[in-house]
Design a protein that fits this description.
315 residues; alpha/beta; Arc Repressor Mutant, subunit A; D-Maltodextrin-Binding Protein, domain 2; 12 helices
């Protein structure tokens, strides 16, 4: 009987190496990876040696500050996460789902803003409803636009605004909550002596802008879109890859930023910020859960969707 070459190759692989690769690239430390794998350090070192021989690459390279991933390992880290999630989902498939005993790990992709808004409630609800289940929360990157179609198939869901690329026949969604954009400035800002902003104020003050591209680069980032709608060409002083980093670069300066009201209100006292209405009302913020249709009839996934909706409803 003729055996397909790809099937033969797969059959000869030790699929336990997938889990070893995932933990080694996650931890970037053999000792910590061994602990997570439940094996001895020599066993984890042996697994790393096998992986190095297989890929013909060092994967982890020692530096003064510790181990770092090689360029190939960085690529493999993204791929092995998706493969392991898919494998776990495959072998967890069952006609019976018991929330009290399920040890499935759910992977969600969301911005740090969303985590700040619903993370605590979601964590508590999952802990009560599915005490043995795990959560793997990954932060949204701007580059998601490039691999969105592949990503949505390999994780349990993405929490994000209803951007055009998400609207596909094989993608389902449910609105979670709404918010609005506000402006934040330091309480010590001497360049602004009023609590009523004008468009001129937005044009003259230096900006802190999350996920804002460099000059000449287009962006689908919400902040860039809102500034464009306001007719503002911002003088960006600080660019950050995080919404929750914004207050740190506004406080004690003459800078201004757009921030979601739920986050701005939460951190205003801690950072001594003034929260001001925009001179022109920006678009509303709509956060929704997006998932691939292959999860639609998955009982465990349906439970997760319900818990996310409950977390949002408590806002």
């Amino acid at each position: 009987m003729r055996v397909d070459g790809h099937l033969s190759h797969l059959a000869n692989l030790d699929l336990n190496m997938l889990v070893a690769l995932r933990e080694l690239t996650r931890e970037r430390n053999v000792t910590r990876a061994a602990r997570r794998l439940g094996v001895t350090q020599p066993a984890a070192s042996a697994a790393l040696s096998r992986l190095r021989r297989h890929f013909g690459d060092e994967l982890l390279v020692r530096r003064k500050s510790g181990y770092v991933l090689t360029p190939l390992a960085v690529q493999l880290a993204e791929q092995v996460e998706a493969v392991c999630v898919a494998a776990e989902r495959l072998f967890a498939t069952s006609t019976h789902f018991d929330a009290a005993t399920s040890d499935r790990e759910f992977t969600l992709l969301m911005a740090d803003y969303t985590i700040a808004v619903v993370g605590e409630q979601l964590s508590r609800l999952v802990r009560v409803a599915m005490p043995q289940a795990g959560l793997h929360v990954r932060l949204v990157r701007e580059a998601l636009a490039l691999d969105y179609a592949e990503t949505i198939r390999s994780i349990d869901g993405i929490v994000a605004p209803p951007i055009g690329r998400f609207r596909a026949p094989d993608v389902h969604s449910a609105e979670l909550f709404r918010d609005r954009w506000v402006c934040v400035v330091s309480a010590e800002n001497r360049a602004l002596d009023t609590d009523t902003l004008s468009l001129d104020d937005l044009a003259r003050l230096p900006w802190v802008a999350p996920y804002h591209p460099g000059q000449g680069f287009p962006s689908a980032a919400p902040i860039a879109r809102q500034l464009t709608l306001l007719g503002i060409q911002p003088r960006v002083a600080v660019r950050v890859e995080s919404y929750l980093a914004v207050p740190y670069f506004v406080v004690g300066t003459d800078r201004i930023a757009l921030l979601q009201e739920r986050v701005a209100s939460k951190y205003a006292d801690q950072f001594a910020l003034r929260v001001l209405d925009c001179p022109v009302e920006p678009e509303p913020i709509i956060e929704a859960l997006w998932w691939h249709e292959s999860y639609e009839d998955d009982a465990a996934h349906a439970c997760l969707r319900q818990l996310l909706a409950q977390a949002a409803a408590k806002l």
